[in-house]
């Protein structure tokens, strides 16, 4: 009897997963004018909708709508004459499918043990936070002359925000530029992890291009938002923010959008409401996670030539500013963005679209307080947000969900872009500093 009960409990735990998304749908919609855009923004606030991508004049938008709001949402769209269609009927079914695919991928290969210190990590799956932490520690032990594990700070829930410094000269040689990259600042954008883990592998475990590590120092933050990331695995797959408590006791809402919390145009193109997915926090750098980036950038402002914040989804290389104003090196910024995008396009899957390169506000939408803008504002010449496609362009999984069949490819193709950017950065740094 007891055993039966245990089985029942286990079953309900599995069954209960993603329950909040039972009957929720994803809609794709097109707006034709400013008035219709306003209706969408209004609905976004009123119904607390999760806007995955904003509809623009030449681009359809994708919005996740909870089951209980679907009727009102559809009614108001029709009233405003906005064209829409359902792309995912029941979001929970897709989440269950992603779980099954990822579990099968995880079962098919083995993570190297502690003693196997220099063994490669299988790159065809999504790793839990603890697994990535263990891997970083393993790399630091296996390559003590090249890798330093740094604890940048402690998250709201008490997790260390760790990153790796990679250098053959312990960061002492200022004739080398630094390339910075981070992933999972928006924790649901899981595919970003593929890019940072792939980079670690190709710099350390399986390095076939020694110029990348001999001439360049690297700072890599695989999990920029650990609390949020754990939450996406354990409770809510579509969580985007960190896990900071609400402003008031018993506040039903919580979390700060970390990519609106940096001190650049802070609060001008983000939300003041803690319930919003773009809540900018109480003050610039109020969050321990963004403070980590600030500290790194402050320490290495002079040497960071290329700054990359890895997100999903879409296929974009985006640069600042989020206000729509271009940095003074706008043309060069665009050209290097094109280099990165073209290098990815050359090896990407044919089923995925080409990368689009552009100013974030003009290409997608205005945004303030982003890490990319903050880095740019400090004078770091080449600062980008990469939006990776999260899936294979197939209809099985959409949006942020990850198809394990695509993970290794995502790491590989993005690395091609990163290498192109890093090599350009090396030359431009040397020119800028008069190093020959
Ligand atoms: Zn993002």
Automatic annotation (TrEMBL):
Signal peptide: 1-16
SUPFAM superfamilies linked: Protease propeptides/inhibitors, Zn-dependent exopeptidases
Family annotation (Gene3D superfamilies): Metallocarboxypeptidase-like, Zn peptidases
Record key words, sorted: Carboxypeptidase, Disulfide bond, Hydrolase, Metal-binding, Metalloprotease, Protease, Signal, Zinc
UniProt keyword annotation of Metal-binding present: yes
Domain of life, per lineage: Eukaryota
Record Pfam families: Peptidase_M14, Propep_M14
Domain Peptidase M14: 125-425
Requisite cofactors: Zn(2+)
Active site: 387
Family the entry assigns: Belongs to the peptidase M14 family.
PANTHER family tied to this protein: FI02848P-RELATED, PROTEASE FAMILY M14 CARBOXYPEPTIDASE A,B
Protein name: Peptidase M14 domain-containing protein
Organism expressing this protein natively: Plutella xylostella
């Amino acid at each position: 009897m007891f055993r039966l009960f245990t089985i029942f409990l286990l079953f309900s735990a599995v069954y209960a997963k993603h329950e909040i998304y039972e009957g929720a749908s994803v809609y794709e919609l097109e707006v034709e004018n400013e008035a219709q855009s306003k209706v969408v923004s209004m609905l976004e606030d009123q119904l607390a909708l999760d806007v995955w991508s904003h509809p623009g004049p030449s681009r359809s938008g994708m919005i996740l709508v909870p089951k209980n709001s679907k009727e009102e949402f559809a009614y108001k769209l029709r009233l405003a004459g906005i064209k829409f269609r359902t792309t995912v009927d029941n979001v929970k079914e897709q989440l269950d499918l992603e779980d099954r695919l990822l579990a099968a991928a995880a079962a098919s290969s083995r993570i190297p043990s502690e003693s196997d210190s220099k063994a490669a990590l299988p790159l065809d799956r999504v790793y839990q936070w603890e697994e990535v932490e263990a891997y970083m520690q393993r790399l630091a032990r296996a390559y003590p002359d090249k890798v330093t594990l740094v604890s940048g700070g402690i998250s709201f829930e008490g997790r260390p925000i760790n990153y790796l410094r990679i250098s053959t000269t312990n960061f002492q040689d200022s004739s080398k530029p630094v390339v910075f990259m981070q992933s999972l600042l928006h924790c649901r954008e899981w595919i970003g992890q593929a890019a940072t883990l792939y980079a670690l592998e190709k710099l350390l475990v399986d390095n076939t291009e020694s110029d990348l590590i001999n001439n360049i120092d690297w700072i890599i933050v695989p999990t920029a938002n650990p609390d949020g990331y754990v939450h996406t695995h354990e409770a809510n797959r579509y969580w985007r923010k960190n896990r900071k408590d609400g402003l008031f006791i018993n506040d039903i809402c919580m979390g700060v959008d970390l990519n609106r919390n940096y001190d650049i145009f802070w609060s001008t193109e983000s939300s003041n409401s803690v319930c919003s997915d773009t809540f900018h926090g109480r003050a610039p750098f109020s969050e321990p996670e963004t403070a980590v980036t600030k500290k790194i950038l402050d320490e290495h402002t002079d040497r960071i030539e290329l700054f990359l914040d890895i997100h999903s989804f879409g296929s974009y290389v985006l640069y600042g500013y989020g206000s729509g104003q271009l940095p003074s090196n706008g043309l060069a910024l665009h050209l290097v963005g094109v280099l990165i995008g073209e290098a990815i396009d050359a090896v990407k899957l044919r089923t995925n679209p080409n990368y689009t390169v552009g100013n974030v506000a003009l290409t997608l939408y205005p945004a303030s307080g982003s890490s990319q803008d903050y880095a740019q504002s400090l004078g770091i010449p080449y600062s980008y947000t990469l939006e990776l496609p999260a899936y294979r362009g197939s209809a099985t999984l959409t949006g942020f969900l990850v198809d394990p069949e695509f993970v290794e490819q995502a790491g590989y193709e993005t690395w091609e872009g990163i290498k192109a950017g890093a090599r350009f950065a090396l030359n431009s740094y040397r020119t800028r500093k008069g190093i020959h």
